[in-house]
Design goal:
alpha/beta; five-stranded parallel beta sheet; globular; binds 1,3,4-trihydroxy-5-OXO-cyclohexanecarboxylic acid
């Protein structure tokens, strides 16, 4: 089966993109980034739906809701990446392919950002390319097997 429907899920503080630490995250707003992702999705022939929350529980609920509605997820869990076992367990629970993305190169920043508790249950991780990390993540997901 090929990937046809994809959820793009953004975690905490990503709603502040555009004004939040532009030296680290750039000047594009989340709406502008989502528009770029939607354009890339059209090129790839996949349907993309978008979600952002600052709450761990809402992110867990949204990941659960992906089961049976989409074929895979591009996820930037923000700071939850580094410590949310609940989000990791949600990814394991649904068994869909998830690509972890980050705008910044988390390996070149504070040491606590180097660990991702999500990476072991994701297909892979893309970081450091600014908003293009999402586009690269979508491309990677579009070519990924749908069963893990
Ligand atoms: C981030 C990196 C995280 O360490 C940070 O907490 C974020 C954004 C990124 O996209 O670079 O909120 O996920």
């Amino acid at each position: 089966m090929t990937i046809k429907r994809v959820a793009i899920i953004h975690g905490p503080n990503l709603d502040m993109l555009g004004t939040r630490e532009p030296g680290v995250y750039g000047r594009k707003t989340l709406d502008e980034i989502n528009a770029d992702i939607a354009a890339e999705a059209r090129i790839l022939g996949v349907e993309a739906e978008f979600f952002q929350s600052n709450s761990e529980g809402d992110l867990v609920d949204r990941i659960h809701a992906c089961l049976g509605t989409v074929d895979g997820i591009v996820l930037n869990a923000g700071a939850y990446t580094h410590y949310s076992i609940a989000i990791r367990d949600a990814i394991s629970a649904i068994g869909l392919p998830v690509v972890e993305v980050h705008l910044s190169n988390v390996h070149a920043r504070e040491s606590f950002r180097r660990e991702s508790v999500l990476a072991p249950v994701c297909v892979g991780q893309i970081c450091g390319f600014g908003p293009r990390s999402y586009l690269l993540g979508l491309r990677a997901l579009a070519g990924a097997p749908t069963e893990r």
